[in-house]
Each structure stands twice: as C-alpha cells, then as structure tokens.
Design a protein that fits this description.
By secondary structure, the chain is mainly alpha-helical. About 50% of the residues lie in helices and about 5% in strands. Strand 1 and strand 2 form a beta hairpin. The two termini are about 40 Å apart.
C-alpha cells in the first residue's frame, strides 16, 4: 500500500491503481494511479504527439509539396521549442543554470 492524496489534501493509505478498470470513481485523480501507469501514459502521449506531427507533415506535403511541408514544420517546431522549454523549466523548477562542471549560474 502506498499513500494517495485525497481532495482534502490528507494522505490515505490505499493501493495505487494500475489502470482505471472497474466502476466509475467520482473522486478519481491522477494521484491514484501507480507510477508505472503514469509513466506509460506519458510515453503514450509522447507517441501520440509524434504521430500528430507526422500525419500533419504528410497532409501538408500531399497538398503543397515537401518544401512547403518542411518549411511549415520548421516554423512550428521553432515556436514549440520556446513553449516547451518554458513549460518544462517551470514544471521542474529549472532556472538558468550552467551545467558545466556542476557550477550554477544566476537564477533566471
């Protein structure tokens, strides 16, 4: 048994769920899922995003050609990487740091 957060913020000793089989749980939260299940969901979402990118690229290529598809793909990823870095930095509490030799730079 592992602790699971409840709506009130208290910790309840319940088994974490490997999946969402069974009856409807009105109080379901991602905190009730086992770490392995959350990891699998994250991997599935990453694969889903790769497929969206691929299908989108192919659709643009079929309509306007490979050069236009590549140009659009580059522009999208140039914008997305800025969002992704801000989101991940915030989520993981990473600020401007120098990773060389373990020295930290000034916080961003």
């Amino acid at each position: 048994m592992l602790p699971v957060g409840t709506e009130s913020g208290e910790v309840d000793m319940k088994e974490l769920m490997a999946d969402y089989s069974g009856s409807f749980d009105r109080n379901f939260s991602h905190g009730k899922l086992a770490q392995e299940t959350l990891t699998n969901l994250m991997k599935a979402t990453a694969e889903y995003m790769r497929r969206i990118d691929g299908y989108w690229y192919l659709s643009v290529m079929e309509k306007w050609g490979n050069d236009e598809a590549l140009d659009c793909d580059i522009k999208v990823w140039e914008r997305l990487v800025v969002y992704e870095m801000k989101m991940l930095s915030s989520l993981l509490n990473i600020h401007r740091r120098q990773c060389r030799h373990g020295n930290e730079g000034s916080p961003g």
